[in-house]
Amino acid sequence: QVQLVESGGGLVQPGGSLRLSCVASGSDFSIYSMGWYRQVPGNQREPVARITTGGTTTYADSVKGRFTISRDNAKNTVYLQMNSLKPEDTAVYYCNADIRILASVNNYWGQGTQVTVSS
Fold first, then answer.
1. How far is C-alpha 7 from the geometric centre of its chain's CA atoms?
2. Contact 52, 60 (CB under 8 A)
3. Which burial class, exposed, middle or buried, applies to 5 when counting CB atoms under 10 A from its CB (0-12, 13-18, 19+)?
4. Are 23 and 75 in contact (CB under 8 A)?
5. DSSP-derived 3-state class of residue 46
6. Which pLDDT value is given to residue 91?
7. What residues of the chain score a pLDDT lower than 70?
8. Can you give the pLDDT at residue 47?
9. Predicted local distance difference test score (pLDDT) of residue 76
10. Which residues contact 29 (CB under 8 A, 6 or more apart)?
11. 17: which residues sit within 8 A by CB, 6+ positions away?
12. Nearest Cα to Cα of residue 96 among 40, 31, 44, 41
């Protein structure tokens, strides 16, 4: 069994920064791509950023130039550095990962962390 646990959310003023972290814990697993999604009540969950095992990154157009995704493979951790935050970035942010256990590869979600951008 593998768990993804996010941290780092909170309340920040417009123009401010936050850094989200997500740690994968368990035993005998391998992580492939990792990413972040976000969801506002009443809306669908949308992709924010993703990073492959080799470090290739992709971003939603709305966060390009402001957010940076990175990962530490030795720590089974993915980060999302969010700068120049806007009120429209307010959402619950979810960590997501493709993880292999034995011969199976499945998609896992964290429980989410709230990010609120407001003055």
1. 10
2. no
3. middle
4. yes
5. strand
6. 98
7. none
8. 98
9. 95
10. 2, 99, 100, 101
11. 81, 82, 83, 84, 85
12. 31
